[in-house]
Amino acid sequence: MRILVVGAGAVGGYFGARLTLAGEDVTFVARGAHAEVMRSRGLIVRTPSGELRTPPLRVVELDGARGPFDLALIAVKSPSLAAVSAKLPGLLAADGLAAPLLNGLDSEDVVARDVGAPRVIAAIAYMSSGVAGPGEIETLAPTRAGLAPYRPGQEARVEATAALLERAGIPVRRGADHRAMLWEKMVWNAPFNAICALTGQRAGVVAERMEDLTRAAMLEVIAVARAEGAEISEATADAMLALTRSEFPLTEPSMLQDVRAGRATEVDILQGAVVERARRAGVDTPVLHTLATLVRGLSPRANAPSAGR
User: 128-158 burial by CB neighbour count: b if 16+ within 10 A, else e?
Assistant: First the structure.
């Protein structure tokens, strides 16, 4: 199987490194110093259970990728997705599959417009990670993936992709409803990304010291999700707070990392997207509205285009 990993930051780098070490044929799309180190030395991935080192890797820029690829894992930042997606029809095999590993609720829809819904499955990454330096990725908690059919009848393709990832050492949670899966991640992502970015604190500190605020924001996300037909229990909020304390206390969400680095944030596809969907559904989200406003005020570049991971 030929695999294309577009974006070799914390998410794409981790998934691609695992697949490479499992013997898969992987091509990475990356650029800059990170790409140069990957070509010359490979990737170093530090995990809670030990260090992984790949051999030198095949790394190209997007225009230099040569298909056909059987699977494309897309792990860029949201502003780069449309440009990447437009290139996929010329890169995927006729029966190839694309799996966007992005934050937000609409990545699958964007990719499906270019390659067709039958060639897209829903995918998410559950991980606490960052790029520690060129060619180096650090994860602070166990990494998992979530997969679900984007359209009915894709169950076999989801299972085959899940089996591929699990052979590479990435546990996979299978979902039946891709919208519920994406919304469930948003229950954590929208509140924790914003509050961590605004306070400069890791997720464990936020869960302990700002539990009421975090829970209130999570319940707003759940209310919007349910208004859109996603079956998510309010108990999910407390379960995620408990999981954050036990498994992810050291997590520094991507929005906190972006603010520290002076990069554009993903406020529009996280807090902003939920607030807009709430407005259309007639659901009040005062906490999320405030968080979105404050995040947008962190930097004059908050809504500027951003390069891929």
Answer: bbbbeeebbbbbbbebebbbbbbeeebeebb
